[in-house]
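Usage example:
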Amino acid sequence: MSPLTVKINDVFNEPACEKNRSKDAKARQKGCSKPLTPGAAAGGCAFDGAKIVLQPITDVAHLIHAPLACEGNSWDNRGAASSGPTLWRTSFTTDLTELDVVMGQGERKLFKAIREIKEKHAPPAIFVYSTCVTALIGDDIEAVCKRAAEKFGLPVVPVNTPGFVGSKNLGNKLAGEALLDHVIGTVEPDDIGPFDINILGEFNLSGEFWLVKPLLDRLGIRVRACIPGDARYLDVASAHRARAAMMVCSTALINLARKMEERWDIPFFEGSFYGITDTSEALRQIAKLLVNKGADLELIERTETLIAEEEAIAWEKLEAYRPRLEGKRVLLNTGGVKSWSVAHALMEIGVEIVGTSVKKSTVEDKERIKQILKDENHMFESMPARELYDMLSEDKADIMLSGGRTQFIALKAKTPWLDINQERQHPYAGYEGMVELVRQIDLAIHNPIWRQVREPAPWEYQPAIEKELPSTKSDTETVHDFKKASPQEPTVSATFEESR
Amino acid sequence: MTRILPQTKSAAVNPLKSSQPLGAALAFLGVNDAIPLFHGSQGCTSFALVLLVRHFKEAVPLQTTAMDEVATILGGMDHLEEAILNLKARTNPELIGVCTTALVETRGEDFARGLSNIKMMRAKELAGTEIVLANTPDFDGAIEEGWAKAVTAMIQRITLRGEQARQRKKIAILPGWNLTVADIEHLRETVESFGLKAVILPDLSGSLDGTVPDDRWVPTTYGGTTVKDIHELGTAMQCIAIGEHMRRPAEVLERLTGVPYALFQSLTGLKDTDRFVSLLSAISGTPAPAKIRRRRAQLQDALLDGHFHFGGKKIAIAAEPDQLYQLATFFTGMGAEIAAAVSTTGTSKILEKVPAEQVQVGDLGDLEGFAAGADLLVTHSHGRQAAERLRIPLMRVGFPIFDRLGSQHKLTILYQGTRDLIFDVANIFQASQHAPTPGSLDPFRNREMPDDSRPPTFSRH
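Running the assembly step on the lines above writes:
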């Protein structure tokens, strides 16, 4: 078996993965990526997944060894934020031409590319990504990286994740393996302390980790490395000296967390900074792990005090939205932990959850969601575009929260929509993030455009024309009124139906 | 003649190119009830899809054959067949546009033969759906090449061959990819104002113009050139191709059906538009309508009002060859100078005519290197980082434009589009004008002077 195959099998056999544990031995052996259906597949490839995980390391040069598409079609497309270096946003690719492929010049070009980057940018490290074509033509990126590292005197890290080996999620995990093999533990920090933690799987999208870090600062907890959000190479390389770790996005980097525990005795827990109770629970767990590892017991008390203060402030702010959002129906179309922790906070202020996707959720997640929703029918694995469109256009939800992939299904069904995935514009983590999320939901639902786009043009239905004549009075009806009003106009909709 | 400098770097820095299959997919998206299919790993599709969606802000139908490791080694025909059958069963489109990628082209299979086998073996299941193949490896070309290959492939596959009875009022238009939705709409209206009928292939104004379908979810394109229109292209009196990269499809159409073509390398600027209007006038036998004359007069006035802002300005452009030519001639036609020109390939004939000393085949890293001291950067949204670092305003053109809304509704051709471009650019210059300061105007500011001869600095005078 090739080293890559061994790696993949190893990753598939992740004992710390809850979803994996719930499978029998046979199912586990099949691995966690379902075979894709040609002509009916969605989602990124392994290379995509690896890049997502590693690219937010801000001072590293990321070099994609590939023909144009892998990097040319995908660079600078995610909203991770940096507090300093910007090199990660510069795109480097060997942009292989037909001649390079035919003449077998891939490795040479790669080596020269590394030299050019080193000379022009002098980064602390260069990450080199293999892709389908360069794997297929047999370029040995590990050997090239090794040679380049010796020659140029800087770490050159091979990330061996050609797209065809599997899904984005597999790529996430293989990226974690690359960090374990080549980066973490290579630098000894001279400033270790009893309050050092790692945050794993936090991407700092829209800078949202900056909503959380001040909380940790207040508690005297230092983030040794946040991987990968706003990370520096040296932080990651010395991450093995943290006392404890929090695993934020478990499906992405669980193998990294578990192996760091094995190798360097860094205990971890899985948590989330989405939602109020989740944020509190995360802070509690961090404190507990640090105390277990020898930090002063007083940390727990400090943490509880902070939680009490911050929760009170957040709930008070959220309460202001209750009159506007009570009874509103939200469809959560996103995977994983996000579902139930966000659902919980929303329900606290009277929002109704009319459905949630459990595609990426573990068995335990599903249990929790079941308890919260009280109706299993509201859980779905995934919904075909057409069904989703019908559900929304039949007005069965007041807003959908999802990722960009289903954005236009909601918008074309003329339903409010809010991005809660990687391309989102707003930070949603921590206490203030939750308030921001609710504020955005409020803004989306109550935007005056919904009334305008939903109503057919006046000439689409005869009876209403008289009513629609321009009036001199200004129109001050709100969306609530419109919703209530619409059933009272059966003639209108009937005529509209017929005219189609 | 313009010198064309080949790329010599090993590491491309901030790519200018989008991939060739993406260009082909874009062309297929200009056909009604169509779905493009990438033959490659799912990432190829996912990246292109995300980029298209970010640009158009629309749901974009695009599927993948989802090649995995085993298929890559053993051959991907099964995946191609399965994908086509699945698409047919799930969406029943009129057209499936297969675009190959670097992965499958590197492995190298006879896709044309494989595809005709699939069509033969599955004739019954696939009835009513045209399947067109474009060979578009990512390691070659960019959007321009992919777009032209897809259009050529559609004509070769679908258009009825042989001389046919010509419809006197019908013209076929083959627009380059760099025309926006607004351009295509305007083109059609202009042609129709002469009493002519235009069949436009591809027609993104029908499919990606940002409309909301009535009452159902449509998994394919809704709008665009119909397959029937493509089938009947041979009945046109005249074909008009726009952009040098559309020469090949126009030639193929002429060879197959005898429809003669006229090629416009650009439709931006007064002179080219005059030629275009004269041609329409000749074909239709009617003089230019008053409305069009009025537009011409407006453009004349815009040239008069706008030229103050352009004279002596240094422009740095990075774009695919035909768009580079379109914009560079526009700018030099207004009195500006092309300080840097970067393009995606050295093989296009149009590059020799670009009014610049040299054209570098390269990336946005090259543009950034040449552009210091320029007054305006002209490229797609990815130029934003360079613009920030150089503190030079950026005019967004081409693809992708993901950080501005409405790029598809910007007009760039004919009298009206040229007028709009003049205003756009002049406004960028006016917005970034620096107020004069004593320091910036001091006649001695750039001269070496012995320290003691420099007068004490006064703040007032």
